[in-house]
Write a structure and sequence with these properties.
The complex is a heterodimer. By secondary structure, chain A is an alpha/beta fold. Chain A is built from 14 helices and 13 strands. In chain A, the strands form three sheets. Chain A has a six-stranded mixed β-sheet with strand order 2-1-3-12-4-13. Chain A has a five-stranded mixed β-sheet with strand order 8-7-9-5-10. Classes of the chains: A alpha/beta, B mainly alpha.
Chain lengths: 342, 545
């Protein structure tokens, strides 16, 4: 600390100092803004600090904003990675917001270019997009085999029909295993499933239980499918459902059930082949919805979408991610739809 | 207080002995709580570090080698300091920690130079400012009494130097950059980064030793160490400019610290500690290389820090998210701290305590205290509504993220600053008034310096909270995956906690254990560095009192 005398002296010139400091700070902040504007055109690639980048063979640049379903996220993420290897100047950001959350908060207000969805877009979502002048263009990019799984300790059930699953999952449904089938133990279920914001939840409720919204609420809802896997692994009387990719990764930790649509049908084990061939009843389509305006106005969005659709029949979708790749007719159909927006 | 009539007038000692059981139970209970908290933290840290570094994946020989060359000497030396020479122990830990902290600081500065202020821009900036300072100094010599004139010169000169007059006169900064020959980037950094640090070290040493020669030597040491990059850089595979940025703060801080310890002449044997550690690491590496021992397959390695997110766990990195977090932190520091500290100063020093306005102020203070407890996701919604939907500042940009998280920690900054100001005894203020000082002089010369230690501690701890916040970032649309580092404060950015959350929901287990742990450790290291800085600053201000 300075002594009192010095304090008195510095007090005498303090106002000027403060004025000067304030003025300097103002100038600095203005300069800071000016700098940022200036830096956007010459980029960060100034010499010296290894900030190179941006010398790919294509001249595309700009941003592609992908939001939407967490189920579609792994495909979009992989596509973004592969696309950016060829087009390093395009910044594809991928977010997982849930199908509905993406439409409502990001895509329809016009803040994102592409929304992934694990179910078709709903009418009210279309209407909300239309209000903002956003036109969602539907492309089916892959398929998923929704998997109903139980604990590996469960030795009384190997397959189920739609009707039995509906009994378990509908509102006011069965309480114990014996309620569904008298041969099964008289023990209460432990139920694990996706959250009601998820497209998986919507698809399952509408197609298997048979009625939108008719899904019991006394289960363990989660947005993180790993929690479902853990729940199934640790509870003998548990049952839950999730996308096939999680089953593929955790085959030794949970037991998947074969599914039959009605009593007389032959139950089918969930697998990508069965889903692709159309034998597995709980196979569901996965979509992306680019915005029509983005496609026609932003070159990089068109290019990324084209790349996405063109590669949606690649084998990595099945082998590395765990979804059903599109077949070649699907790809051709998608690409011809896309051409209308060029 | 219904005490029995018989108890009245009795003394505790009447019973013959005082019962200490309750007191003892209380003491042991408190000890148990502390031990439990520490133990749980330790288990958590060990768990995360084990996942991040996977030490057991190394060869037993490798582990043995490094136990022998690094761990045992460290423990031995530590035990010696603890028993024989506590002063040297303090020196030892500081001398080991200082370069690490300064190195991390240099890393942050490097990120800024690479992404926010490119070398040329920085060079023009510093040179232009230096010219203005030189002009003001010259004016001070020629017309020492024209202070108003000088103020005008300083403010006007700064504006002219950095902004210029749009359309009429280009800024001095751009004039400098349009010079026919500019030095190379390395020389730019030597002049505008290493030289100021060296000057600071030299000034410090000169002041401490009252010897210009010693000061010059210190200055030269720092400059030479930084300049060595021109020679060593290419050999070691580092860009010379990177070397300059990394080495000058570390050496500068070390020179100042070593000089101070040598001057005080206490605990100098502590300097052996970092030397032993570095030598041990070098020896261990050499032995492991010779004997062909494989090191652990750590998740947290150089590739992780410099890489971008990948769908393959082994290749995943955190770099763009790290840059994003640094940018967001800068926005927070620039926006929330001045506002928060100013508000606290007003509330504590100027706000009336009585009357209608006084009651209103009280209401505000209660609200601030309550706001500090509002869940962070609420601030996220607020940020989405105000900054994105109302002001249209862009989804997921560093500015929006910084403002939103800044709002979140604003009440914490205000409250901790208020506490710090309140802890300055009134007698100091009254003494200042008695000397004839005005209110403003009292605040500036007595209250603020006195409470600075507390303000630093509180605000930096608030920053620590800010860097880990995830929920607000989710709400304002900071994307789960960004593969390109943000180019400015106005472009879409990633952030470390958001990236870590993404990894936690990946399907592959390697992401949820290895990569996630590496990300958590990176975040922890940044956080601990900030907390360490808070402690150092606090100690410094407490000592200088």
């Amino acid at each position: 600390m300075t002594d009192d005398q010095a304090d008195g002296r510095s007090g005498a010139v303090s106002r000027r100092n403060v004025l000067a400091a304030g003025g300097t700070a103002l100038a600095l902040s203005i300069a800071g803004c000016a700098n940022n504007e200036g830096s956007s055109d010459n980029g960060s690639g100034d010499e010296g600090l290894g900030g190179g980048g941006g010398n790919g063979d294509s001249d595309l640049s700009g941003e592609v904003i992908v939001t939407g379903s967490s189920t579609v996220f792994p495909i979009s993420d992989q596509m973004a990675q592969n696309f950016m290897e060829e087009n390093p100047d395009v910044n594809v950001t991928v977010d997982s917001t849930g199908s509905g959350g993406g439409f409502e908060n990001h895509f329809c207000p016009g803040n994102s270019d592409i929304n992934g969805a694990s179910r078709p877009i709903k009418e009210e979502e279309s209407a909300s997009c239309e209000e903002n002048g956003v036109e969602p263009v539907e492309f089916q990019v892959a398929g998923d085999a929704l998997t109903m799984a139980v604990s590996p300790d469960n030795d009384w059930v190997d397959s189920m029909t739609y009707d039995q699953m509906a009994q378990i999952w509908q509102e006011g449904g069965a309480e114990t295993w014996a309620d569904v089938n008298s041969d099964w133990p008289d023990e209460e279920f432990e139920l694990f499933g996706p959250d009601d914001t998820s497209g998986t939840f919507d698809w399952f409720t509408e197609n298997v239980v048979g009625e939108a919204g008719n899904h019991r609420s006394d289960y363990e809802p989660t947005e993180d499918d790993n929690i479902i896997v853990e729940g199934l692994e640790n509870n003998e009387y548990s049952i839950g459902y999730f996308g096939f990719a999680y089953y593929q990764e955790n085959q030794d930790r949970v037991k998947a059930l074969a599914v039959a649509e009605s009593e007389g049908d032959e139950p089918v084990e969930p697998s990508l082949e069965a889903a692709q061939a159309g034998d597995y009843p709980m196979a569901r389509p996965l979509f992306i919805y680019p915005s029509g305006n983005s496609l026609s106005e932003k070159e990089q969005v068109y290019a990324f979408t084209e790349y996405y659709l063109d590669n949606s029949d690649e084998s990595f979708i099945g082998e590395e991610i765990g979804y059903v790749p599109s077949n070649s007719e699907q790809v051709d159909e998608n690409l011809s739809t896309l051409e209308e927006y060029q | 207080m219904a005490s029995d009539a018989t108890d009245v007038g009795k003394w505790f000692g009447d019973a013959g002995s005082i019962d200490r059981t309750t007191g003892r139970l209380f003491k042991w209970g408190c000890l148990g709580a502390t031990a439990l908290a520490l133990f749980l933290m330790l288990v958590f840290l060990l768990y995360v570090f084990n996942d991040a570094f996977a030490p057991l994946s190394a060869d037993p020989g490798w582990l043995l080698t490094f136990t022998g060359t690094v761990l045992l000497p460290m423990l031995g030396l530590g035990a010696y300091y603890y028993r024989r020479d506590p002063a040297a122990g303090r020196v030892a830990y500081t001398a080991l920690g200082l370069p690490i902290v300064m190195g991390l600081f240099a890393g942050g500065v490097w990120l800024l130079f690479r992404h926010v202020a490119p070398p040329r821009m920085w060079f023009g900036f510093v040179v232009a400012l230096a010219i203005v300072v030189a002009l003001v100094r010259a004016h001070e010599r020629i017309r020492p009494n024209a202070t108003d004139e000088r103020t005008v010169l300083l403010v006007g000169g700064t504006i002219l130097a950095l902004v210029g007059v749009p359309g009429l006169f280009p800024s001095l900064r751009n004039l400098v950059l349009s010079a026919p020959a500019l030095p190379t980037v390395t020389v730019m950094f030597l002049l505008t980064f290493a030289l100021p640090i060296a000057t600071l070290a030299g000034w410090y040493v000169r002041k401490g030793r009252e010897s210009t020669r010693a000061g010059t030597i210190a200055l030269a040491v720092v400059l030479v160490a930084a300049g060595l990059g021109l020679v060593i850089g290419p050999v070691a595979g580092v860009l010379p400019a990177t070397w300059v940025i990394a080495v000058s703060p570390v050496v500068g801080a070390l020179v100042m610290y070593v000089d101070r310890v040598l001057r005080q002449g206490e605990g100098t044997s502590g300097f052996a500690f970092p030397v032993v550690v570095v030598a041990g690491i070098l020896a261990g590496t050499a032995i492991a290389d010779l004997a062909d021992f494989a090191g652990p397959e750590t998740w947290l390695n150089r590739d992780f820090l410099t890489g971008v997110h990948s769908t393959t766990a082994v290749e995943a990195g955190i770099y763009p998210a790290l840059v994003g977090s640094v940018l967001i932190l800068i926005v927070i520091v620039v926006s929330a701290f001045p506002v928060g500290i100013a508000a606290a100063v007003y509330l504590e020093e100027y706000a009336p305590s009585g009357g209608k306005l006084g009651r209103f102020i009280e209401l505000i203070e209660i609200n601030i205290a309550n706001l500090a407890g509002v869940p962070s996701v609420v601030y996220g919604v607020l940020g989405l509504a105000i900054f994105i939907n109302l002001l249209n500042m862009g989804v997921g940009t560093a500015v929006v993220a910084g403002f939103t998280v800044g709002l979140l920690i604003l009440p914490i900054v205000i409250i901790s600053t208020q506490e710090a100001i309140r802890s300055v005894p009134d007698s100091r203020r009254n003494a200042s008034y008695a000397m004839g000082a005005t209110k403003w002089q009292t605040v500036r010369n007595v209250v603020l310096p006195e409470s600075m230690a507390g303000i630093f501690t509180g605000t930096i701890l608030a920053l620590g909270r800010a860097i880990g916040e995830t929920a607000p970032l989710l709400m304002i649309g900071v994307p789960a995956v960004v593969r390109v580092s943000p180019e400015s404060f106005f472009s879409r950015t990633g952030a470390m906690p958001r990236q870590i959350l993404t990894w936690s929901t990946q399907i592959e287990t390697d992401f949820r254990y290895g990569v996630l742990a590496a990300g958590v450790v990176t975040l922890l290291v940044v956080l601990l560095t900030m907390n360490a800085t808070a402690i150092v600053l606090r100690n410094r201000y407490q000592q200088s009192r």
